[in-house]
């Protein structure tokens, strides 16, 4: 039987919504005109665009895909998860392909250790925010590779030694006499370094713009990481950096996360017109959402108003059984919270894996005048990395 639709009810439905001529559509257009001159920031997976307002040409800042050292740092971040993954594969399929994966990881780790040096980080990767830390970074990576190589060699020689328990004991956890710096600490360090560099560059860019943050509109558009990640304010690392860059002047309700919004093409220096072409749609999206939310006060004055919750401040300690958001970090020595964040971003599908420490790094940058040299990098600074050949090569 065909679905019946009453023409009268349909007319009533479309009177309010469904077209620019509807009452709802007219409200969106009125809101769009109201905010036409307001600065609009749109963040995609790789670029930030500032649309100044009133049709002025946008300004673009590439921030993720153009990040120097992204693959190098991420490769080292992956060493701990790679070992745990091999143990899990072996547990599920003892006679399966895990030895081939272990052999490939071993060869790649050995090649990386040979290529690693302070000169690589200073002269070739050349990340400005890392200046002065290149010898320490090289020593950290040398140690991470050695720990991984030894674990893999033992696993290939004695397969019974590859278990989740041995991965935790001999690689991830510590420190101990046999493992002076654990891979968990190195994972925190690499995530922090990535967040420090990203935050430093974006805060510098935003500070140079001199934005009226109280009147600025922000949209984070499209997919940000794994398909389920970054869809809430507290799970989106870019949102955290923008908030920090505004020195918390940006109203919480002015930042929208729109995973299904259109995404302008990655800026290559020649396609500014393609970026500019989407501005009307972005402004209509933001204005339409804002117009609807502003009805709340008019319709329900006297009832409790909505206030976005800041959920990322839970204090935890050994014995805390569960967490649902990124916990607070009481300084760079709060290893229980730092490591708990690693578990959370792995288990919570909403989280961006690289966002485990980004908000912490961004806040520390703001508190220290956006000067990376003033920061203490947990897992890197002050750690007892064993003496190795790369430490003596820095000039």
TrEMBL record:
Pfam families documented for this protein: DUF5624
Matching InterPro entries: DUF5624
Annotated DUF5624 domain ranges read 67-196
* Protein name per the record: DUF5624 domain-containing protein
């Amino acid at each position: 039987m065909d679905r019946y639709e009453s023409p009268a009810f349909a007319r009533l439905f479309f009177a309010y919504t469904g077209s620019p001529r509807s009452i709802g559509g007219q409200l969106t257009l009125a809101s769009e005109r109201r905010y036409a001159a307001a600065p609009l920031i749109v963040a995609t997976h790789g670029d930030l665009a500032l649309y100044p307002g009133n049709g002025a040409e946008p300004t673009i800042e590439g921030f993720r895909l153009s990040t120097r050292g992204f693959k190098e740092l991420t490769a080292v971040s992956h060493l701990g998860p790679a070992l745990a993954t091999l143990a899990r594969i072996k547990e599920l399929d003892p006679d399966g392909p895990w030895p081939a994966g272990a052999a490939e990881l071993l060869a790649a780790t050995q090649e990386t250790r040979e290529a690693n040096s302070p000169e690589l980080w200073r002269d070739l990767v050349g990340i400005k925010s890392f200046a002065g830390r290149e010898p320490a970074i090289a020593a950290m990576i040398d140690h991470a590779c050695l720990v991984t190589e030894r674990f893999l060699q033992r696993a290939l020689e004695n397969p019974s030694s590859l278990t989740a328990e041995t991965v935790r004991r001999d690689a991830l956890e510590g420190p101990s006499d046999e493992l002076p710096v654990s891979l968990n600490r190195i994972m925190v360090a690499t995530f922090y370094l990535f967040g420090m560099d990203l935050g430093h560059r974006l805060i510098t860019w935003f500070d140079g713009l001199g934005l009226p943050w109280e009147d600025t509109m922000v949209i984070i558009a499209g997919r940000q990481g794994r398909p389920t990640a970054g869809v809430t304010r507290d799970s989106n690392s870019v949102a955290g950096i923008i908030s920090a860059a505004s020195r918390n002047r940006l109203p919480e309700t002015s930042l929208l996360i729109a995973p299904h919004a259109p995404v302008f093409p990655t800026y290559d220096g020649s396609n500014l017109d393609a970026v500019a072409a989407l501005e009307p749609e972005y402004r209509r999206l933001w204005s339409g959402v804002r117009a609807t939310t502003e009805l709340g006060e008019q319709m329900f004055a006297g009832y409790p108003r909505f206030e976005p919750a800041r959920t990322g401040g839970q204090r935890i300690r050994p014995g805390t059984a569960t967490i649902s958001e990124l916990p607070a970090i009481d300084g760079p020595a709060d290893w229980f919270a730092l490591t708990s964040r690693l578990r959370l971003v792995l288990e919570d599908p909403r989280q961006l894996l690289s966002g485990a420490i980004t908000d912490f790094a961004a806040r520390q940058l703001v508190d220290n005048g956006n000067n990376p040299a003033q920061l203490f990098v947990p897992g890197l600074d002050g750690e007892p990395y064993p003496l190795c050949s790369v430490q003596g090569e820095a000039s």
